[in-house]
């Protein structure tokens, strides 16, 4: 937009008198133009051009120029509905639509359009806008939509002078309107047949929404399924009907409905169905008597159209008496035909037919019944035993009834007719008069009313043709005597029944027997009468009386007539009763001699008497202490209500509330927790209404034994006599209840020990005469009277004797270095009772024990006493001497000389002997000599003819005194000897070097050398061992040998290392070779006083000559003595060969001995057992309590002492161990 003015001078444009200082570029020849770009509503105003004064002219103001700003309308707004939405209206209903547009200049014009057509029923209203220069326009449309408006656009258009195109806003109309009435297709003809299938289709056109369809039949919904076709704007529903007779005259409707309609639109058709009757039936009874009129009715079920009926009997058509057609449901018709007919016997079994037909619908159906014409039977007869037959009760009798003719076949029934009052002599089987045919009845008339009962048991029916039969098998009873059995033949014709009967004659024993008494209760000594009456019997019975199996004399009271035509017999007996008769039975036996049968009854007597004790009443009762006892009471009384009072030692026992005394049923007294104080006499006093009585019962209480006194300890000198007295308390006290037992480990009986046992009453004596040391020990007194627990107690028998010093091998010499730095221990052990005291002397003079170099330690253990003299800083000059040990007690003394010497080579072994010999080995044993104060080892020398020199074998373990030579030749003489050696040299060979001459046995079975072996499986089984198994076992054996070698090498190396460490750590004194004479018995002294439990008799002279080495069998050695078994096995026989001799090869320890092919080492270690040392005294632990007496002893498995380890022969000893020359 632009304006201009022509002027001279300074020009200004003004807006509503407001100066606008715009200097525009549009200045030309004094023209000043104003241009407004993108004008706004605010630019709407009057504009003036003002020119300021110049040099030549004054200021000027131009005329006003009015600027009008026009604004097109904005997008209209429909107040009720959202733009571009779908609005649902119902056709025929008036609606109001408001459309407004704001902020337009000039005011906008609003119009409504339906599709392309403009609507005229519009009112508009213009109002000021938001500012004074703008205008708002509002238009209101009133519209009544039609179905044709469905899916049309309703728009509101706004326009003014400025708008190039109208501004449009609108929405889509969704007009709801009802559908057109439905149409039913598919039903063309007026008539359809039942069981046909009818398909109907219902169509409803148009409608928004499309109609929902449903089918109804007679107002009831059949189907609610339908489908819609949007393309063709219709709804469709199909219905399939399987027509039935009930569909006749039915109205089938289709209803169409949508949400606009309040009531559905409906189309209906009426069905006309043709259907025949479903059934034809005949009503009425088809059974009748001959020549009697019957009425039948034939009717059909409903049909459309109605049918016709006709009757046929066999091949003949019968005329109906009446025909009726009635209306039925669903438009059907029912046809009824009535027939009246009088049949005869020939019509029986003919078919009567009612036929229904209709030629128009080509239908026919019939109903058939069979006529049953009844007529009575013609004849009846029975097959029974002859009338004069007599039957025994219990006999089975067969009665058969026959009947012929009649329709239906007659019904046969058996009846039993009895007469309660029968005259004549029914008990006698008599000849009957000839009866009319088919009739054999009672001979005499019945006085009174007859009793008739139908018989149902034992009945069997049968028929053949027109003859029927009924068989009755009955077991005769007393009631069958003179009873009439009648057979009746009846039929439905209500004619009199045909009958036939017979009478039975039955002999029967008495049915029962009854006893009556004059007085039911009598007292002792009174009399009473019993009367017995038998029941009816035929012939009459005889009465017999019994009491306790004895027949009684009775009085016969005669016979009377009874039921069933029998007789009743009566009799009586009179008794004088006693108390013994109370509760007893008096029996009455009724017996029929003719039938050898009868019936019995009894009457139990009730006799009143005071209490009486039974002859079997016990007067002595035995029981066991701490248990319970019942003092039984065997008493009888009548009346049985008895008052019981028990007394003991004159005092009344109150059983009620007592914790120990309880009164039981029958008056017996039960005592709980019985003690021996309860023994004694009990008195029971009994009383009832008839009197009183009493008796006594002795209670003997048995109790387990206990030992009151036992002489412990008991002393006796050797050779003396002693008695150990055991006093007990027991009840009962049988003579054999005392048992004595010696508690030594060895199983030795008192007879073997020569000890006598004397028992009398409650005292038993164990008598020892000429007491020996072997008798000493612990003895147990055991008392057992059969009531547990058994009493046991032990007593010690101590046999006193003078001291006896143990003078075993090596006890007389002790070696020690005389360098004034060593010490020597001299040990003296003695046995003796009582305690032994020791004294020491040197070279016959009493030893000065006050010297600090002399120490004496005494040890006492049981009867073994030990004194050890220790000499410190041994001097060869002063201490190498003979020391005398003297042991003494009050019974005597004993002495032992012990020589203290310098260390030297060992003494030769003694007592070399052969323990066992076989064809390829021999076992040797010997007694070691003095070891010279150093550890010694042994070497065996052997020789046989044919070799130039001796062969040697080192004994292993080195200190073992047994050895087995293996690999020898059979039947060969060998010269064998043994010597000892220590670090200072070798001893001479045993027995002066002469040796033993031993010849091996001849080979008996095996061609190779036989060696001792453990018994194994038979050779035949080993031959059968598979080769792979042999190889596996060989590999395992080789592995085991290698492991043993490795273990042994490690062990020897460890011991050598420990020995070297010990010499370094313990100093020069403790590391020296031990000096003393205790190496023989030190094995058990060093055990810390191990218990010695086995006592053995020995002689004083032999005690010093025996050693601790004995032989034993491998097979019988206990597991705990394994080490000893291995050591002793070297002298075992071939059958007991130890496992370490099982291989003939060179032993794995061969490197430690002189390498000889034939040598085999001994057992790896040796153990000592007290039981193997006969010189150990029997009093070990004799002074200890019996509760500590051991049953067994356990010895630890010892590997030989490291001090005694094998030492090399080569080399030089230290100076302190070489001794001094005296």
Automatic annotation (TrEMBL):
Coarse class of the protein's main subcellular location: membrane
Protein name: Nephrin
Any GO molecular function: cell adhesion molecule binding
Record keywords, A-Z: Disulfide bond, Glycoprotein, Immunoglobulin domain, Membrane, Repeat, Transmembrane, Transmembrane helix
SUPFAM superfamilies with a match to the protein in the record: Fibronectin type III, Immunoglobulin
Transmembrane annotation, as ranges: 1029-1053
Record's subcellular location: Membrane
Composition bias, Basic and acidic residues: 1000-1013
Residues in Ig-like domain copies: 76-172, 181-270, 277-370, 377-499, 509-606, 705-798, 803-902
Coiled-coil portions: none
Annotated membrane topology: Single-pass type I membrane protein
Gene Ontology terms describing biological process: cell-cell adhesion
Keyword Repeat: yes
GO annotations of cellular component type: cell-cell junction; plasma membrane
Fibronectin type-III domain: residues covered: 908-1003
Pfam family, one: Ig_3
PROSITE patterns: FN3, IG_LIKE
């Amino acid at each position: 937009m632009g304006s201009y003015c022509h002027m001279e001078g300074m020009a200004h444009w003004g807006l509503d008198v407001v100066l606008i200082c715009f200097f525009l570029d549009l200045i030309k020849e004094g023209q000043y133009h104003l241009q407004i770009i993108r004008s706004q509503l605010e630019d709407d105003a009057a504009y003036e051009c003002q020119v300021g004064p110049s040099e030549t002219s004054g200021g000027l103001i131009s005329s006003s120029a009015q600027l009008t700003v026009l604004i097109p309308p904005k997008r209209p707004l429909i107040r009720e509905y959202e733009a571009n939405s779908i609005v649902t209206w119902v056709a025929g209903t008036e609606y109001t639509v408001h459309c407004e547009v704001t902020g337009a200049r000039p005011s906008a014009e609003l119009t409504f359009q339906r599709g392309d057509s403009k609507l005229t029923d519009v009112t508009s209203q213009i109002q000021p806008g938001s500012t004074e220069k703008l205008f708002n326009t509002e238009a209101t449309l009133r519209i009544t939509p039609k179905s044709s408006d469905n899916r049309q656009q309703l728009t509101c258009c706004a326009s003014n002078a400025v708008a190039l195109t109208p501004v449009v806003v609108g929405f889509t109309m969704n007009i709801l309107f009802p559908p057109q009435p439905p149409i039913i297709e598919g039903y063309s003809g007026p008539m359809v047949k039942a069981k046909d299938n009818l398909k109907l289709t219902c169509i409803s056109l148009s409608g928004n929404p499309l109609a929902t369809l449903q089918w109804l039949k007679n107002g009831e919904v059949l189907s609610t399924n339908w489908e819609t076709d949007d393309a063709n704007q219709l709804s469709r529903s199909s219905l399939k009907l399987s027509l039935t007779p009930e569909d006749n005259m039915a109205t089938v409707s289709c209803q169409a409905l949508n949400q606009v309609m309040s009531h559905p639109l409906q189309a209906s058709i009426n069905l006309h169905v043709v259907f025949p009757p479903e059934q034809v039936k005949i009503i009425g009874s088809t059974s009748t008597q001959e020549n009697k009129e019957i009425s039948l009715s034939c009717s059909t079920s409903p049909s459309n159209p109605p049918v016709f009926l006709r009757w046929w009997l066999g091949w003949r058509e019968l005329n109906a008496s009446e025909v009726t057609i009635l209306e039925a449901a669903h438009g059907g018709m029912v046809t009824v035909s009535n027939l009246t007919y009088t049949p005869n016997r020939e019509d029986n079994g003919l078919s009567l037919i009612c036929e229904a037909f209709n030629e128009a619908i080509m239908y026919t159906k019939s109903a058939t019944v069979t006529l049953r014409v009844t007529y009575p039977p013609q004849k009846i007869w029975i097959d029974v035993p002859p009338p004069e037959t007599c039957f025994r009760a219990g006999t089975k009798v067969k009665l058969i009834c026959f009947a012929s003719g009649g329709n239906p076949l007659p019904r046969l029934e058996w009846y039993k007719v009895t007469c309660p009052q029968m005259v004549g002599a029914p008990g006698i089987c008599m000849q009957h008069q000839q009866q009319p045919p088919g009739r054999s009845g009672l001979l005499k008339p019945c006085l009174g009313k007859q009793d008739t009962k139908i018989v149902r048991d034992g009945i069997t029916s049968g028929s053949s043709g027109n003859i029927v039969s009924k068989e009755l098998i009955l077991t005769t009873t007393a009631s069958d005597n003179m009873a009439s059995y009648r057979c009746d033949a009846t039929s439905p014709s209500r004619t009199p029944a045909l009958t036939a009967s017979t009478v039975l004659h039955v002999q029967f024993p008495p049915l029962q027997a009854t006893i009556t008494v004059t007085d039911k209760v009598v007292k002792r000594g009174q009399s009473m009468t019993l009367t017995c009456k038998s029941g009816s019997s035929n012939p009459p019975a005889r009465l017999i009386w019994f009491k306790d199996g004895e027949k009684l004399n009775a009085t016969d009271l005669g016979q009377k007539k009874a039921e069933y035509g029998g007789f009743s017999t009566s009799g009586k007996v009179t008794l004088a009763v006693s108390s013994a008769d109370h509760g007893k039975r008096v029996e009455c036996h009724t017996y029929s001699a003719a039938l050898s049968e009868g019936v019995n009854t009894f009457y139990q007597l009730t006799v009143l008497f005071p209490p009486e004790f039974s002859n079997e009443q016990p007067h002595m009762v035995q029981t066991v202490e701490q248990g319970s006892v019942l003092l039984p009471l065997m008493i009888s009384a009548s009346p049985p209500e008895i008052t019981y009072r028990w007394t003991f030692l004159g005092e009344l026992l109150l059983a009620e509330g007592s914790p120990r005394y309880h009164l039981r049923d029958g008056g017996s007294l039960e005592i709980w927790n019985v003690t021996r104080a309860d023994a004694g006499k009990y008195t029971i006093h009994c009383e009832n209404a008839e009197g009183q009585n009493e008796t006594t019962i002795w209670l003997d209480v048995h109790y387990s034994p206990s030992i009151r006194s036992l002489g412990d300890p008991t002393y006796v000198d050797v050779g003396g006599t002693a008695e150990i007295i055991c006093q007990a308390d027991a009840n009962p006290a049988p003579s054999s209840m005392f048992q004595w037992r010696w508690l030594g480990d060895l199983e030795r009986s008192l007879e073997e020990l020569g000890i006598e046992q004397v028992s009398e009453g409650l005292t038993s004596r164990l008598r020892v005469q000429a007491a020996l040391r072997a008798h000493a020990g612990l003895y147990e007194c055991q008392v057992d009277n059969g009531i547990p627990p058994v009493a046991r107690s032990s007593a010690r028998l101590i046999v006193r004797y003078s001291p006896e010093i143990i003078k075993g091998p090596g006890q007389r010499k002790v070696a020690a270095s005389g360098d004034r730095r060593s010490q020597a221990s001299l040990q003296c052990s003695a046995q003796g009772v009582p305690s032994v005291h020791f004294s020491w002397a040197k070279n016959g003079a009493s030893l000065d024990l006050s010297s600090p170099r002399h120490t004496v330690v005494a040890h006492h253990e049981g009867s073994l006493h030990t004194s050890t003299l220790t000499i410190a800083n041994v001097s060869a000059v002063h201490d190498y001497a003979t020391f005398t040990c003297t042991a003494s007690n009050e019974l005597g003394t004993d002495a032992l000389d012990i020589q203290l010497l310098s260390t030297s080579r060992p003494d030769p072994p003694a007592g070399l002997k052969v323990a066992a010999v076989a064809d390829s080995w021999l076992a040797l044993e010997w007694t070691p000599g003095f070891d010279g104060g150093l550890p010694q080892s042994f070497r065996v020398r052997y020789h046989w003819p044919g070799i130039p020199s001796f062969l040697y074998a080192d004994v292993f373990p080195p200190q073992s005194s047994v050895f087995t030579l293996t690999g020898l030749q059979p039947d060969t003489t060998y010269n064998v000897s043994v010597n000892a050696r220590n670090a200072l040299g070798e001893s001479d060979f045993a027995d002066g070097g002469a040796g033993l001459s031993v010849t091996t046995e001849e080979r008996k079975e095996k061609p190779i050398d036989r060696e001792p072996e453990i018994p194994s499986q038979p050779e035949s089984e080993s031959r059968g061992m598979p080769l792979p198994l042999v190889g596996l076992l060989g590999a395992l054996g080789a592995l085991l040998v290698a492991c043993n070698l490795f273990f042994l090498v490690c062990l020897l190396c460890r011991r050598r290392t420990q020995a070297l460490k010990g010499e370094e750590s313990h100093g020069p004194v403790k590391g020296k070779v031990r000096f003393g004479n205790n190496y023989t018995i030190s094995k058990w002294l060093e055990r810390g006083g191990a218990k010695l439990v086995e006592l053995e008799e020995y002689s004083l002279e032999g005690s010093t000559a025996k050693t601790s080495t004995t032989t034993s069998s491998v097979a019988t050695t206990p597991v705990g003595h394994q080490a000893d078994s291995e050591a002793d096995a070297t002298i075992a026989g071939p059958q007991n060969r130890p496992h370490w001799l099982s291989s003939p090869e060179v032993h794995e320890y061969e490197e430690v001995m002189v390498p000889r092919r034939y040598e085999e080492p001994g057992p790896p270690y040796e153990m000592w057992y007290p039981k193997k040392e006969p010189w150990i005294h029997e009093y070990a632990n004799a002074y200890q309590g019996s509760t500590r007496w051991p049953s067994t002893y356990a010895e630890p498995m010892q590997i030989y002492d490291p001090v005694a380890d094998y030492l090399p022969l080569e080399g030089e000893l230290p100076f302190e161990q070489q001794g001094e020359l005296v």
